[in-house]
Specification:
303 residues; alpha/beta; Rossmann fold; 9-stranded mixed beta sheet; two-stranded antiparallel ribbon; globular; binds zinc ion
C-alpha cells in the first residue's frame, strides 16, 4: 500500500513537471527585415517558420519602408523582446532607433546576425563591433583586418584588400572550433552543409568571443583557399550576439536548400535560444547531417 502510495505521488510529480514544461511560454523575438539585396520576402518567412515550428519561440516581424523611402517612421520597441533577429541589409535606420538598438544590446539583449545582415551599415562603427565581421558595402582594410583560421588559431590579417566575397554555391563541411559551448554541445565536429554560399575575406573589428564553426573555402570554386569563420558569438556590453553567415535564401520556400538544411536550422534554433537566455535546452536532433550526407527539412520543421 505504501509502495503504491509513493508511486502515485511520483506519478503526480511527473505529470506536474511535464505540464509545466508544456506550458512554458515561448521566447518572444522580432525579425527586422524589409530591405535586402537578398530575397527577404522569402527568408523572413522561412526564419519565422523555423523558429515558431520549434514551439520555443514566438516572433513579430518589423518590415521597414522600401529602399529610398522615408525611414523616419520606422521604429522597433526593443524592450518587448528577448532577441532581435537581423535579416536586414539596407538604408540607415533613424538615429533614434540606432540608439535604442545599442542600448538594448548593451543592457543584455540578444541578437542574431543572419547572412547578409553582416553586409549592412559599413559606416556604423558600433554595429560593426556587434557583428565583429562584415563584407561588401565598400568594406576594405579601413574596416578592420581580414580574419581567418590557420594552424589552430584566428589570424587577423591587416594587409590591404576588399572585404567580403564568395565563390560558387556548393555543399561544404562545417568544422567545429570550440571545445565546449551551449550552442554546439553534442553536435558533430564535422558535418556537411547543404548547397550554400561560403562567405570569405570578411573584415571588421573582429572581436569574436567563441568561434563555433569554420569551413574551407576552395579556390577551385572561386573562394579564398582559407578556413573561414562562419558561425561565432560576440559580446557587446552585457549583450549576447550569435552571428551565422550561412543561409543564402533561394527563389522560393520550396527551392531553398541552404535554409532547409537541418544543420543550419539546428544552429539557428540553438543560437537564438542562447542569445535570448544564455542557455540551450534543445537536444541534438536525430536528422542532423553527418560528415558524408546532407539533411534537409523541406517544411522547416523537425520530425
Ligand atoms: Zn547570399
Amino acid at each position: 500500500m505504501r509502495i503504491l502510495h509513493s508511486l502515485s505521488v511520483l506519478t503526480i510529480l511527473f505529470l506536474v513537471t511535464l505540464c509545466s514544461a508544456c506550458a512554458r511560454e515561448p521566447i518572444q523575438g522580432v525579425i527586422i527585415t524589409g530591405q535586402n539585396n537578398h530575397n527577404w520576402p522569402v527568408s523572413h518567412k522561412a526564419i519565422k517558420m523555423i523558429l515558431e515550428n520549434s514551439r520555443l519561440f514566438k516572433v513579430d516581424i518589423a518590415v521597414s519602408p522600401a529602399a529610398g523611402e522615408d525611414m523616419s517612421s520606422f521604429d522597433v520597441d526593443f524592450s518587448k523582446y528577448a532577441f532581435v533577429f537581423l535579416d536586414y541589409n539596407g538604408d540607415s535606420w533613424p538615429e533614434k532607433m540606432n540608439t535604442a538598438f545599442l542600448e538594448y544590446v548593451k543592457n543584455g539583449g540578444g541578437v542574431v546576425v543572419y547572412h547578409a545582415a553582416d553586409n549592412a551599415f559599413t559606416d556604423w562603427d558600433e554595429y560593426n563591433k556587434i557583428i565583429a565581421l562584415g563584407g561588401w558595402g565598400g568594406r576594405d582594410e579601413n574596416s578592420g583586418p581580414y580574419v581567418y583560421w590557420k594552424d589552430g588559431a584566428l589570424v587577423k590579417d591587416t594587409s590591404a584588400g576588399s572585404g567580403g566575397s564568395h565563390g560558387a554555391r556548393h555543399e561544404y563541411i562545417m568544422n567545429q572550433r570550440v571545445t565546449s559551448h551551449p550552442i554546439v554541445d553534442g553536435l558533430p565536429e564535422r558535418w556537411k552543409h547543404a548547397t550554400d554560399e561560403l562567405y570569405d575575406r570578411m573584415r571588421g573589428p573582429g572581436d569574436i568571443k567563441d568561434l563555433l564553426y569554420t569551413a574551407y573555402s576552395p579556390t577551385e570554386k572561386g573562394g579564398s583557399g582559407r578556413e573561414e569563420p562562419l558561425a561565432f558569438t560576440v559580446e557587446y556590453g552585457k549583450g549576447r550576439i550569435f552571428h551565422i553567415m550561412l543561409g543564402h535564401c533561394g527563389d522560393t520556400l520550396e527551392d531553398n536548400p541552404a535554409m532547409q538544411c537541418a544543420g543550419f536550422q539546428t544552429l539557428l534554433l540553438r543560437g537564438t535560444e542562447w542569445c535570448a537566455t544564455g542557455n540551450v535546452t534543445q537536444k541534438v536532433p536525430a536528422d542532423f547531417p553527418t560528415e558524408t550526407s546532407v539533411s534537409l527539412r523541406k517544411d522547416y520543421k523537425q520530425h
